């Protein structure tokens, strides 16, 4: 199709990951860029995160979500990078030059473009009631915390007046506070695990400040209601997550908000044969954030779910720089080394790195349970490449380590582990 | 003796503060400052949204320019809920100046055209 436009890179997603990736690609010399965003505005999920706390690493300030997004949108526009909003990518296919990207919007209908490379920054979705097999009736008033956040912060609708929340991750905690501030009665938060998944500052500022009780080791046993939610029964669980008899507590409420996990969104990638990481549910990538399909790169929450937007911005920047190198033929992917998670490490990304002339590479990982006063060891066979003392490591906080490539001396597997 | 969790860094040290404001349980000096502030004058940033008339969006997100006393949070919310703005409104525009005489402004964090 000779009248198809060709781009050096098509960035799918105009949130924190995509914006950062496009800006970095541009700054490293890639000029023919197209950013495609499904919503009406660039900025991604940050636009509904009206609370502050974003950007401590990037800007040394604590901005609100919309302010953080605004800084990157301004940088994109300053560089006159082409972007389209209200535009949905329906398919990606391989072709001789790279990829065909098919997108759709109201002005243009369905459009096919050529892309030499692709960066996916499509974010994540919230786990739903169905996915956790929550029992009981199916009245209205049961929704994800993020949905309630969107209704409240973008549209101005308070979704309920007497609220119970399942899940003590940050979204649940933030929405507990938000609902109280707007006049709702938040009756409590139930958390399946024996510890909260959210930041301590949110436990203090969202629950303790408003005397909202936190029920650890509890989950929702049953949802009750005919047309609208009327009550929920929560119950305690043991260490095997089985319900303990006689521990039911019933709460009369009209709204149940679910904060039970985030899942990376990658429906465009699986038909292309992109391999997924079994733990993160996002694609397997190398140190350049390239998937097993050459020329497809991934960053942000669709790669793995993040806690800090600053890390997403960094990842987007790596994608942008990698695409610039790839287009010049400068991505040295010989001498591949596998990276594995060892004792105490839930997962590590990237999965592979290369022995080449780059000075450093970065590992991102999460531990599988809270640790105090431990040593983080990165090693090959029994040779230690790097050792770091850590006073505190928790699963809720993604960690980052930078390794000097000169310290990697063989092609054996690298392993990262926690030593108590 | 008051017990609180420090929120200055992810460690979350469990602090104890007595009537003479002696702090124990802190892993660093920032914890001492935090504990004293929390006891004498706890403050919080407040974020919310304000109704927009004639704009492409119906709400504009806002933030307090500085932290406000913790016991004034709901009153600040009442003031925020009383106002409406007309589009266009720009990021950093002051929506309420010196709210409740606290020396704190309510500022827009997004532009709505």
- Main sheet specs of chain B: 5 strands, mixed
Largest sheet of chain A: 7 strands, mixed
Number of distinct beta strands of chain B? 10
Helix content of chain B: 10-25%
Could you tell me the radius of gyration of chain B in angstroms?
18 Å
Reading the helices and strands of chain B in chain order gives EEEHEEEEHEEE
Shape of chain A: globular
Major sheet: arrangement of strands of chain B:
8-5-6-10-9
Taking the alpha carbons of the first and last residues of chain A, their distance comes to 60 Å
Average predicted local confidence, pLDDT of chain B: 93
Describe what is shown at a glance.
With 420 residues, chain A is an alpha/beta fold. Helices cover 19% and strands 36% of the residues of chain A. Classes of the chains: A alpha/beta (420), B alpha+beta (113).
Map the helices and strands.
The complex is a heterodimer of chains A (420) and B (113).
Chain A: E1 6-12, H1 16-27, E2 33-36, E3 52-54, H2 56-59, E4 63-64, H3 65-78, E5 82-84, E6 88-95, E7 98-105, E8 109-120, E9 124-126, E10 142-144, H4 145-155, E11 162-166, H5 170-181, E12 185-191, H6 200-207, E13 214-216, E14 218-225, E15 229-236, E16 249-252, E17 255-258, E18 262-264, E19 296-298, H7 309-327, E20 336-341, E21 345-349, E22 352-354, E23 360-367, E24 371-380, E25 383-393, E26 399-404, E27 414-419
Parallel strand pairs in A: 1-2, 1-8, 2-5, 8-19, 10-17, 11-12, 11-17, 12-13, 20-27
Antiparallel strand pairs in A: 3-4, 6-7, 7-8, 9-18, 14-15, 15-16, 20-22, 21-23, 23-26, 24-25, 24-27
Helix pairs in contact in A: 1-3, 1-7, 4-5, 5-6
Chain B: E1 2-5, E2 14-17, E3 23-24, H1 29-40, E4 43-44, E5 47-53, E6 59-64, E7 68-69, H2 73-82, E8 84-86, E9 94-96, E10 106-108
